[in-house]
Amino acid sequence: MSDDKKRGLDSPLRRKLLMGIAAIPAISMFGGPSFAAGPATSAVNTTGLAVTDTEVTVGILHSATGTMAISETGSIEAEKLAIAQINEAGGVLGRKIKIIQEDGASDWPTFAEKAKKLLVNDKVAAIMGCWTSASRKAVLPVMEQYNGMLYYPTFYEGLEQSKNVIYTGQEATQQILAGLNWIAKEKGAKSFFFVGSDYIWPRTSNKIARKHVENVLKGKVVGEEYYPLGNTQFNSVINKIKLTKPDVIFTDVVGGSNVAFYKQLKAAGIDLSKQALLTISVTEDEIDGIGGENIAGAYACMKYFQSLKNENNEKFVAAFHKMWGEKTVIGDVTQAAYLGPWLWKLTVEKAGSFDVDKIAAASPGIEFKGAPEGYVRIHENHHLWSKTRVGKAKLDGQFELIYETADLVEPDPFPKGYQ
Amino acid sequence: MNDNARFVNRKELMGILVLAVLLVVILPLSLDVFRLNLVAKYLTYAFVALGLVICWGFGGILSLGQGVFFGLGGYCMAMFLKLEASSPENTKIQSTPGIPDFMDWNQITSLPLFWKPFHSLTFTVIAIIVVPAFFAFIIGAAMFKRRVGGTYFAIITQAVAAILTILIVGQQGYTGGINGMTDLRTLKGWDIRPDHAKIVLYFFEVALLFGCIFIAQFIRRSKLGRILVAMREKEDRVRFSGYSVANFKIFAFCVAAMFAAIGGAMFALNVGFMSPSFVGIVPSIEMVIYTAVGGRLSILGAVYGTLLVNFAKTSLSESFPELWLFGLGGLFIAVVLAFPNGLAGIWGDYIQPRIDRLFASRKSGSDPKADSKNGKSFGPVADGAPAE
Fold first, then answer.
1. Which of A3, A108, A204 sits opposite B275 (nearest CB)?
2. Which of A47, A176, B93, B132 can bridge B261 by disulfide, Cβ–Cβ 3.0-4.6 Å?
3. Could you tell me if A286 lies within 8 Å of chain B, comparing CB atoms?
4. Do A138 and B314 touch (CB under 8 A)?
């Protein structure tokens, strides 16, 4: 692997010279932020990335087609919005961002192929992309081999950390623990029933949730059921829920299955205003498909809701609606995707360079005060410090903020005691 | 009948040589390593398409489950590579070092028994061929001995593809689930990821592909091939002539399975991972489309069809990320409606006769064999019109 990282730096003399040149504009930059004239390209780009005097190329890699398109479209829109805003504000180091968009087509190998194309052929400075864990797992070796930089927006299962990835969503403990604490305290919940889709994220999340319920909250998990992705028959699990009468139904069912699950829950006479249900997989985007009347009263544990009341978010929602239409809803992941280009811009400016190694090194400690979710900061482990919030689903498809943690929650992708 | 004695005739040899020049000289010289690696990926599907020419084109057995064998071959290879990538030093971050990462995530604490033989490369190579062939033999024996054929067989192969996908996704502790097996690194200590390794793998794969082309050509030219075609045209007559139709069908199906498995194993090596998204119904049907576009009666057509469809897929999706699937769908419909014999049909019906005429007029008819009935390198006319 070390061979590849040396690409473009073959001659030690050239390398030293470039480093020397790099120092000159870096010094002058401390004088004050000025985007009028950016530093010389040879100084900010020593590894042959697609950076010219006026432009820097960035890749967007999501599924525009296939089953995941419905979820990933919001992320594409958010990233395009962020990049448009950055360009309006003068770009990055005086350079406008140019986008190359590729379609992962909801197919993991295609993601890997396109990631490789973006890095090897197009030499993009960073990639905003991936959504499912499977697509990230497919892309990760490519990012590490060709030394790219990926900004990954989705909340995910953790157990991963890479120099070449910035995780702008929550890892599992950030999303789950505070929510469970809240519902245990608020509802006096002691017994939990887990329902999830059958793949790595729900399995890992439920593992963490189970340990927390059993060891910390001293409660009981009365059932744990998994269904294949895309499953639409939940009658048997609903019967079990009715028999075991758990205090809380804890769900991480994803995608289209959600529609069937909540409709069948309602049809079976489970009233979510009486039966507590905590989901970590339903955002405003999913409610669009489920229908507000089928899920009203359920609690969701996220870090962002469209209805958050703060100045950043109001500006963000207005800009989003102006660019993509009044009807579009903004979910948790969409907001996290919006953070990607901004965090990258801030990091590039701190590092004074587009070089991936320097960006990876400069990332820890980067603060973004303009985030719609509020202030965020990048941790040493390349995840974000962020708050956990609980919202209650309303009939109109929005969430009402019920609870948020007082402080930012530390990201802990390899949680001790939860493995 | 004279041509039967010979393994390839002059025109077929020319066709193979042209393909060889394209794959061995032109593509490696004109493409960068990234694109060449893409071609290597496409060619792994060409193995499947070749197998389908034998079993569907010659034998008339339409299998909509070739992804199963592609997957079995690929998973065998991936298991070996994954074990090598999961050495205790590489995986010391896990709760149980030394086992593949996805097992650790699924709370499995020791290597399952059926994984253990995959520490050996020899075993793996044998398994890549034998496991799918055995599996195909069981399916074939169960179906063909009972005279299940045609549409019913196609539906059953689809069901098998669906079952295997569900099995792989469901048993994620043992198989990696929907994520598949990612991050494969070395083959016996040889890193398969850098550029020079990709080039070596490409040429190795092309050599294997020509091996398979020659086997297919041999089958086509042998009496066996004649019986397969006869079976496709009038199964009962072959049976009444005293042949065991079921055995020949099983044989063709097993050969197709082995070819697909070799493709799958090469896929795992070239792309560096394997996932259930190559096993299911959709990829299996896509593989049939490659064969249909190339011309299901033509050995070389299968290779060209695979390359063309995949090139179209990549370039369309790069240019029109949101619309490309519609374009591709339109292309398929157009090809199937206008040219039922695919590319090979276009070549055989329109281009080849003109070239022949050109040569014939130059040589003023000195070589009468050039127009002989069996002389077409792409075969559709030679083998007669398809029955279905």
1. A108
2. B132
3. no
4. no
CA separation for the pair A111, B263 (Å, rounded): 20
Find chain B residues with C-beta within 8 A of A112's C-beta: 271-273
Domains of chain A: 2-170+311-385 (3.40.50.2300), 172-302+387-404 (3.40.50.2300)
Chain A residues near residue B325 by CB distance under 8 angstroms:
65, 105
* Contact status, residue A168 vs residue A340, Cβ threshold 8 Å: yes
Tokens 């294949």 found at: A228
Residue B312 neighbours by CB under 8 Å, 6+ apart: B328, B331
CB B26 within 8 A of CB B238: no
A407 touches chain B (CB under 8 A): no
- Whether the CB of A162 is below 8 Å from some CB of chain B: the reply is no
Q: Return all residues near A384 (Cβ < 8 A) that are at least 6 apart.
A: A167, A168, A169, A170, A339, A376, A377, A378, A411
What residue spans define the domains of chain B?
2-335
Res. A32 pLDDT band, cuts 50 70 90: very low
pLDDT digits (tens, 9 = 90+) for B230-262: 999 999 999 999 999 999 999 999 999 999 999
Q: Supply the pTM of this predicted model.
A: 0.80
* DSSP structure string for A340-388: HHHHHHHHHHHHTS--HHHHHHH-TT-EETT-TTS-EEE-TTSBEEB--
Q: Which member of B32, B37, B95 has the closest CB to residue A419?
A: B95
